[in-house]
Amino acid sequence: MRTSTRLTHAARRLVAQACCSASSFRRRAALAANGTFVYSQLHEANLYGYIIKTYLYATGTLTVSGARLTLTPTSARNTVMKTCGRSTDEQLTLDPSSYGSRVAKGADGPAGLYLTGSDGEEAGPFTPR
After folding, report:
1. Residue 25: inside a domain, yes or no?
2. Across the chain, what does the average pLDDT equal?
3. Is residue 3 part of a domain?
4. Has residue 12 been placed in a domain?
5. Calpha distance 10→113 (Å, rounded)
6. Each residue's pLDDT tens digit, 19-57
7. DSSP H helical ranges for the chain
8. How much is the pTM?
9. Are the CB atoms for 50 and 60 separated by under 8 Å?
10. Which residues pair with 110 in a beta bridge?
11. Could you tell me the end-to-end alpha-carbon distance of the chain, in angstroms, rounded to an integer?
12. Residue 40 and residue 55 in contact, taking contact as beta carbons nearer than 8 Å
């Protein structure tokens, strides 16, 4: 009797998801009135006790032209910390990112900023802190 490859792969995925892995993803962006931004992103993964943390930190300028918001990074650093293996810390050069933007009142709160990426997906509302 032959075991189905599809079933074997599905079972491996279920085992990995159920008892052997955990992951979290957090990001934060601050847009300032002086035309600058700060972006940070932290991704943590635990696979069989092997922990990897990836931290990205970028700063730069922002410009608005009509309904288009463009972020141009001037400095970026990516740090990868591992419980096993070599950790890294490197300077990056990132390309500018452009988004469609609109400000609208949320269904149950104050007005917020909505951004639309090149893939057409809209994110938001982003509200002032």
Report:
1. yes
2. 83
3. no
4. no
5. 40
6. 446 788 898 999 999 999 999 999 999 887 888 999 999
7. 5-15
8. 0.73
9. no
10. none
11. 62
12. yes
